[in-house]
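Q: I have four molecules that I believe assemble together. Could you output structure tokens for the complex as a whole instead of separate predictions?
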Amino acid sequence: MKKDYIFDVIKNSPNSLTAEEIYNNVSQNININLSTVYRTLNNLVDKDLVTKIVRQDKISYYELADNEHKHYLICDKCNQAYPTDMCDIEKIERKIKRETGFNITSHTLEFHGICPECLKNAK
Amino acid sequence: MKKDYIFDVIKNSPNSLTAEEIYNNVSQNININLSTVYRTLNNLVDKDLVTKIVRQDKISYYELADNEHKHYLICDKCNQAYPTDMCDIEKIERKIKRETGFNITSHTLEFHGICPECLKNAK
DNA sequence: AAAAATACGCAAATCATTTGCGAGTACACT
DNA sequence: AGTGTACTCGCAAATGATTTGCGTATTTTT
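A: Yes, here they are, computed for all four components at once.
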């Protein structure tokens, strides 16, 4: 099943990938259609094996749905995403829950700026 | 100029609006084309008068670019967005800047869950 | 092995947003 | 007022990521 190839790519990637990146990667090994990639991806997301994140660029990024809570620092120059595990939002969530009664189940957080590499190159 | 009509709608709205919502609103008063709305919106965003936010639903939401830092609680049931000003992310940003050298200039944060209203109706 | 269920490829559809182009309108300078 | 230049708009077509319909292949179930 081609699903395994797709899931493997996601499992072995240190950062989140677009459907096209996954397609390109899997294509090196087997014949596959882009729509199959999308279909499989949606499948994996439904099964909670993969997490889909929509970034400000309106493209979906897929990553392994591990429990480890991560967010990304996205460089506006090179567009690379650097994961970070610093996230104290749980505190804010509790506060919001307490003060508004809104039952928060998840959140998305995205930092934008310039990465050290690009900062260096700019000079 | 039709720009004024568009900007007025945004100024007078308590929450962020989609291009289509703005179009519908402005259409009640004058003749206007949807592409004009989009063009004007991009213009206002370029001039930093309006802020554009891409949500997980991949639709762009526009709001007045005031300095007041806001984030939204988005109900997965009714899809309404409730603004909140609780945001202690600045601390996290400083920490990241210090520890990674990444020069953060902005961030987007989106909470998902069920609003009190929908919670009540579900029972 | 036949039947039932899935997986897949391909081409066309979708939907928010953008863009090319041509016509209309405003502003500036003489 | 006249002419040139620059915006502003409307309209229709293009874009680009993602989805979907449908017919065929492949797997799973019995």
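A: One point stands out. Chain B touches chain A through 39 residues (CB under 8 Å).
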